[in-house]
Every structure is written in structure tokens, then in C-alpha cells.
Amino acid sequence: MTVKVAILGFGTVGEGVYRTIQTHESELEALLGKKVEVAAVLIKNNQKERKIAKDVLITTDFNEIINLSQLDIVVDAIVGKDPAFNYLKQAIERGCHIITANKEMFAHHGKELLDLAEEHQVSIGFEATVAGGVPIIQTLRQLLKVNRVQQIQGIVNGTSNFILTEMREKKQSFADALKLAQEKGFAEADPTNDVEGFDAFYKLMVLSRVAFGNAPNWKAVERVGITSITSDLIETADQLGFRFKHVVSIQKEGDKLIGSVRPVLVSKSHPFYHVEGVENAVNVFSDIVGRITLQGPGAGMFPTASAVIEDLVYVSQSNQQNKLQTNPVIEVLPLAAGSVNNFWLISGVSKTELSPSIHPVDQVSDQTFIVETTDEEILQKAKEFPSLSYYPILDGTQILQNKKEYLTVTI
Ligand code: HSE
């Protein structure tokens, strides 16, 4: 008896899954009581040399895979919505369990696939869609079933965090740091998805559905990437005791959700301060347990393969647990990240341009200030001055308490 697996895509993720199935053959067999075999790999370009065993079907035609005489699990390691969604629908209809690492596809079509899987009594694993090897999805799906989640905050794009760390620690340029992230296999095929926050946005939508049982109105969620963060700003923040982090946040307030995807500043006391390089971290705030922080490698061949391999056991052993909790439709408001957004680092305007509505707490340089104000006022000012960039300080109240410790220049 064997479990036959097809891997769709043989890029960083697909290859990592293939290799891990070989290296962890005995663990998989011991857990499942059956040998796991890769029966087929779907590729795009059949000219490339690949290290795949001769008895594996390697094809560019998905029909050859879906028509195999035995096929138990289909692993989606393709980028983008199409044709992945279509392939997975066919796989479910054929009675296969599916595992996906494809966040864009799952953010768009997760609900439809979960419903279809329910109908066909198969399971879906999607741990690899969010935060690479960090087991946040299964923590929410399996381990926090009674807790009511109130807020999730996360660093969920390894590439952005890697770039910000390289720029600060090694004084690398943005372009060089991105190039290195691409070489290391962290970045998306189109890195715009990483640096402009799309990848993190899709991951937030997946998290939101798992935690709150709902997909918010995408248009209402603020999405800002890291491209406005210059080396100068990073240095300024560092001198003030802060680090830039690209953070997704979704929180429940009454029957509403407040979501955002944007760069923020954190001080030494915030759990994200020491999350560096390709590491991801997710904070879950829920009513019984309080705050849990999960941290680990967020991208790359083996961290992502780890999430897929664990899902391989999950889908094989689970009894079609596709149902996510459902909540009534909740409105999503566009607001900045985090629950305490009263303090901001802002740049690109003069003191005169800030007045009279915003009074700086501190002037860091000619056009850079620490201010204490509301989201509305910041957004209003940003409309007036498109050159303005603004970054909430997540744990900003500490500035008030320990102002002198953080602020080196007084006004
Ligand atoms: N490009 C993604 C990242 C890969 O950097 O986080 C993992 O989803």
C-alpha cells in the first residue's frame, strides 16, 4: 500500500517537498502505515534538468496527472491563481486530498475549495500559505478552537523583513538586499508582490478567514509595502531605538474588523523587535490564553516544505475537517496597524506644513518628526502632502513614559 502524491510545480517549494518526501520517508511511513511516493511532477519547462527519479512521471500536461490510475494527494506549489485553482478543483472532484502553498490562489478561492472538499469528503492543508514553516494555521485551526481570537498581528513576508534587516545591519541598498533575497529563494517570482505588500495582504486574508471565519472587503484594508523606507529613515529609527517591521494586523472590535498591511516601528520591548532576516512571527491575542507569539523561518525551500509535509500527514489522517468557524459578515474599516497608534514617525513635510493640526513631540531632522495624533489626522495630512510618509509606532505609549530614553533630539 502506498500514498501517491503529485507535485504541481518544481520551483523552490516543489523541489523542497520532493526532496523532503525522500529524506523523511521512514517518518512518513511510520506515521501513515504506508509508503509515500511521488507519482508525478507537473513542470512548465521540459528543457530544464531536474533531479527527479526516473520512475516519476514528469509532464507539462495536468491531464496526464489527473488521469493516473492511483492519485491520493495533490500538492500545489504553483504561483498565482490560475491555473492552480482549476487543477485543484479537478483533484478534489476526483477524490484527492489537496495541500497548497499558494497564498494568492487560496486567499481568492479558499472558501470555495474548502466547501468543495467538504462535499467530496477530502481534506485541504494550507499551512504553507502563511508564514512559511511557522505552524500558525494549524495552531488556529486545531489548537485554539474555544478561544475567541481578538487580534492577529504578524510579520508574514520573509523577503520584506530580510530586506529591512540587511539595510539596517549591513547598510545594504534596497536593490542589493532584494537581489540577495531572490538568490536565496525567498522572494516571489515577481518581487513586487513582496515589497508592495500584496503577498502579506493575501496571507492576512487567509489568517482572517481562519481566525474570524470571514473574508473582509479587500478594498477596505490598507496595504502599504516597504518601498518608501529609505536607508536614512532606517538609521534615524535605529538611533531612536526603533526598528521598521512590515506588519499585517487584523482585529475584532465589536462586530467589525480593522485590518491593515503596512510598515510600522517597534521598540525593544515589542516581540517583533528581534524578529530579523527571513524570520516571520505571528502574535495571536485571544480571550482565554492571552497573547501567543509564534516565530520561525518564513520563507525558503525547507521551511515551506516542512509546512507541506506536516500537512501531508494531517490530510491523510484527518477526517475531512474543512469547516472553518463562520461568523456573520463583518465590516472592515481601513485603519493603521496595531491597537495603539497614537505615536508616529513621519517624514517628508516641514514643521510649518504640519501645523496647526499636528504638533510634533520631537523633531528628528529637518523633515522628520515624532508626532502624537490620530489616524484621521495623519490620513488627512497625507492627502494634503503626498510626499508625507508615516509609520505608526506600535508600542508608542512607551515614548510618553520614557520619552527621554528614546528621543535624542529635542525641539
Ligand atoms: N515571498 C514569500 C516571502 C515566500 O518572502 O515571505 C513565502 O511565502
UniProtKB/TrEMBL annotation:
Q: Name one GO biological process term.
A: methionine biosynthetic process
Q: Identify the domain of life.
A: Bacteria
**Domain (Aspartate/homoserine dehydrogenase NAD-binding): residue spans on this chain:** 9-127
Q: Does the keyword Oxidoreductase apply?
A: yes
Protein's UniProt name: Homoserine dehydrogenase
Q: In which pathway does it act?
A: Amino-acid biosynthesis; L-threonine biosynthesis; L-threonine from L-aspartate: step 3/5; Amino-acid biosynthesis; L-methionine biosynthesis via de novo pathway; L-homoserine from L-aspartate: step 3/3
User: What is this organism's lineage?
Assistant: Bacteria, Bacillati, Bacillota, Bacilli, Bacillales
Please state what class of enzyme this protein is: oxidoreductase
Q: Respond yes or no to whether keyword Oxidoreductase is given for this record.
A: yes
User: What molecular function terms (GO) are annotated for this protein?
Assistant: homoserine dehydrogenase activity; NADP binding
Reaction equation(s) it catalyzes: L-homoserine + NADP(+) = L-aspartate 4-semialdehyde + NADPH + H(+)
